[in-house]
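User: Hi! I'm a student and our assignment asks us to look at how structure tokens line up with a sequence. Could you show me two examples?

Assistant: Happy to help. In each example below, the sequence comes first and the structure tokens follow. Example one:
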Amino acid sequence: MARLNALDFGDAANLFINFNLNHMNKAQLIGNLTKDVELRNTPGGKIVGSVSLATNKTITDQAGNKNKIATYHNLVIWGKAAEIIAQYARKGSKLYVEGEINNRSYDGQDGVKRYISEIVVREFEFLESAKSSGDTPAQNKPQQAEQNEEEEIRVENIPF
């Protein structure tokens, strides 16, 4: 495998030299919530939400049939972000999430040690409007989304 030098890419590549690429823990996912967000309070009073996100990929088998395969990711969302997602997203809502992969273990009720991988969400974006996710009451929509829906865009008003 050829090793590339930042000089091979010009001055713009120098922006990337300062990053320590040996240590990165980042996950970026686009998928659908498998249920509504469950909110809890920690003993210290912090809000934490948990939910599962399904990502899909399509594979073609040897016979040419296309099959969808779902992968489920456990999300942990802290603070205001958890409240916002719980308020505006429902089961089936499409989200983009970015965060850190966290592996931990716990003792189950049966005394057996269990292991779990989670994505601790640092950033997120709703990828569909509240209307398309089935959330119809106007009071549950973000204020900015409400203003955008009132504006009608006409082809003749587009300047290009």
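Example two works the same way, sequence first and then tokens:
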Amino acid sequence: MAVTTETSPNVALVSEFLAAMGRVDIPALSELLADDASWWLGGDLPVSGLYEGKDAVIGGFLASAAALFEPGTLGFDLRFVSDAGDRVVVEYIGKARGVATGKNYHNAYCTIFECREGKIHTVREYLDTAHAGDVLYAVTAS
């Protein structure tokens, strides 16, 4: 059995997308998403839920999520990538500093990207939402 180091087009697409996320490059992110893209984030964070359509993913989710991090601090450390044809499963560590709290953000993610015709079509994102809530959202006294 031959071992190859070639990257599939979908893995390259997802890698490019994650790099653009780290730069908070909204035009690049928009270019990589399908027009009918969807993004799901579980949990009970203010940004949790299902976003359907490129405009909702970009404006409703990605821009809102990016605003939670101090500019220039967001980065991703890839740990594992599984190429399953039209699905790419990525495990990574997200690192940044929260704007609202000034706390360091260090969260493990597992994200499933479904790709179609050279674009990202569906994303399902799993992470420690308790940590995200603690670092990214200021607690207000009642």
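Here is something you could point out in your write-up. The CA atoms of residues 40 and 76 lie 19 Å apart.
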